Amino acid sequence: MKNIRFTALIIILITSASLKAQESRKNPYNLNIISSEQAYSALIHGDSLKRLLDLKTAVPGIVMDIRYATTNNFTHKQVYTSARAFARLKVARALADVQRELSKQGLGLKVFDAYRPYAATLMFWDIIHDTAYVASPVTGSRHNRGCAVDVSLVDLKTGKELQMPTPFDDFTPKAGSAYEQIPEKAKQNRQILLSIMTKHGFTVYASEWWHYDFNGWKNYELLDLSFEELAVIK
Ligand SMILES: [Zn+2]
Predict the structure, then answer these.
(1) Domain count of the fold of the chain
(2) 221 annotated active-site
(3) Ligand 1 center from residue 129 Cα (angstroms)
(4) Extended beta strands in the chain, E state
(5) Which residue in 161, 180, 208, 221 is the catalytic one?
(6) Which terminus of the chain, N or C, has less C-beta within 10 A?
(7) What span, in angstroms and rounded, lies between the C-alpha atoms of 17 and 11?
(8) Which of 232, 203, 185 is nearest to 36 (CA)?
(9) Domain-located, residue 39
(10) At what angle do helices 184-199 and 89-103 cross, to 10 degrees?
(11) For residues 216 and 147, what is the distance between their CA atoms, to the nearest angstrom?
(12) Partners of 86 in beta bridges
């Protein structure tokens, strides 16, 4: 009897140790990350505000320039398998308000990146170990929460981007949101973007004029689902 109990105890210990090993392989930094279709589905059925929306339909007229779906980005690799942009419901609605207001001035939004799976953050960190420009895997990125967007302004008629301080993902001080030594026109355009995004609940990131965090991002979980996985979950 004692032997049986002892054997059972050993089996339980071994099982729980191997489960722990699996978990830690998935979340090496002990983060709580929603990474399965089932977990995401349970999340959005518990709280519909947590749903990620496709910005192409949620923000009519938004120009998509999803750099990580091409090789035209700092990694020189295609990180995303499709050129899509997603954000949480409230974020997408706020962007739709921004777009509506901008259209009165003949302007619109262009999006470079929005929701980013946690796996992409791990890949970026491998390339650039600098928290000024990429998020540490220890914390994850606000992009992983579906609460950050990388955006610029376009002329609605031509679809062309307005003059800005630097191109997207320029990892130099010139990309700073308050950097002064830039042409007057670029400064004015950066200010138009800043004013309207701030008005609609976003905060600019000091190192990148194009990066905006949605206020309240702390209330949203880190996610690690691909665009393809998201597209099939109802
Ligand atoms: Zn960003």
Answers:
(1) 1
(2) no
(3) 16
(4) 33-34, 52-54, 63-64, 86-88, 107-113, 148-155, 202-205, 208-214, 222-223
(5) 208
(6) N
(7) 10
(8) 232
(9) yes
(10) 130
(11) 8
(12) 54
- Residue 45 in any domain: the answer is yes
Distance CA 207, CA 117 (A): 21
Q: What's the whole-model pTM score?
A: 0.87
Q: How remote is the CA of residue 73 from the centroid of ligand 1, in Å?
A: 13
* Å from CA of 211 to ligand 1 middle: 4
**Using an 8 Å Cβ cutoff, are 113 and 75 in contact?**
no
Q: What is the pLDDT of residues 14-33, one digit of tens each?
A: 444 444 334 434 577 889 99
SS3 for 91-143 is HHHHHHHHHHHHHCCCEEEEEEECCCCHHHHHHHHHHCCCCCCCCCCCCCCCH
Amino acid (1-letter code) at residue 105: Q
Position 61 pLDDT exceeds 90: yes
pLDDT digits (tens, 9 = 90+) for 108-140: 999 999 999 999 999 999 998 888 888 999 999
CATH number at residue 159: 3.30.1380.10
Residues with CB under 5 A from ligand 1 (ion): 150, 211
Distance 147 CA to ligand 1 centre (A): 10
Token duo for residue 138 = 């220890």
Look at residue 5 and tell me if it is in a domain.
Answer: no
CA of 148 to the centre of ligand 1 (A): 6
Gap from CA of 36 to ligand 1 centroid (Å)? 24
Tell me, in angstroms, the distance from the centre of ligand 1 to residue 74's CA: 13
Domain that holds residue 91: 33-232
